[in-house]
Amino acid sequence: MRVQVVRPDALGREEIAVWRELRAGSGASASPFMEPEFTLAVGRVRPTARVAVVRQDGEPAGFFPYERGPLGRGRAIGFGVSDCQGAILRPGLPLTSRELLRACALSAWEYDNLEAGQTLFQPSAAAEFGSPVIDVRAGYAAYEAGLRGRSPKFLKTTLAKERRLGRRVGEVRFVFDEPDPAALRTLMEWKSAQYRRTGRRDRFAKEWISTLVQRLHETRGGGCRGLLSVLYVAGRPVAAHFGLRSATVLSCWFPAYDPEFARYSPGLILHLRMAESAAAEGIGVLDLGRGAAEYKDALKTRELRVYEGASTRPGAGAVVHWLHREPVRRAHHYVRGRPRLSGFAQRTLNRVGALRGARRC
């Protein structure tokens, strides 16, 4: 067995085909983030992107996508925007995490959404989280019936707001797969404003993220492609979502709406219509992603498990990584686990956002 490290664009057709076969036979959820297309897309905008190709008896037997930083500190491919991470390996491959990191010249590999079942890395996890999902494999009617039983007031109120929006403003129209790049630009503007308003880092201020999203929106076919869904009222977009889809999973990524229409909860209406259209398209699961939110609690049918942490091998690089990341991670985890502190932190972020907005004016 040997490991060869290459740039994503150096992967050949045979290797990509084996990657897909390994992933399809793994029994794991068909997350688009774990498909080769996502790694290839990140490789076009991130020069530090690499793939370790594991060969056994000369044949491809595994793939480990990652990004390499200074001092051999590695991160999951697309770290910061990737919602499912890990290696794609043939079952029973005699390989340890330390051996793989050594072959990649990595002192540490950091992840924040490690997929459950990643036995190579899961023992190193420092925290476990739920990632809520909407399961529509039995069809949208069955999902809505379940939602009516779990959250009758939520469903009734949301559907009433949709009807009210149509009466007071104009015709409500939903497009599941909107190819118009202007609609994507509108969504990105809304999302950037939301980040600033809530005191959070604007992801779209990073050129590589905005370029990645735009290119994935243009992608058609394959196991991972962008999907832009838009809710229009009287011909005007009022809510939108950009995510990634595979054949059976839609990973929800960037939802946003026009604050002018907030009273109608257009984001909730959008998610219900997305679930309905996804079921009609044969998509069985909408992964809402890690992170607490009231709308996720209302919409979800169950949760997947994801993990945060870092796999390391002995050496100075691992110590540097620990000193740089672990205190911050532990502080975040401490605050998240205490509702009063978490609420105070959120209010502080909101005040920071308001100050930023005032300065921009």
From TrEMBL:
Signal peptide: none annotated. Its EC number is 2.3.1.-. GO terms for molecular function: acyltransferase activity. Pfam families: Acetyltransf_6. SUPFAM superfamilies: Acyl-CoA N-acyltransferases (Nat). Residues 156-296 form the BioF2-like acetyltransferase domain. This is GNAT family N-acetyltransferase.
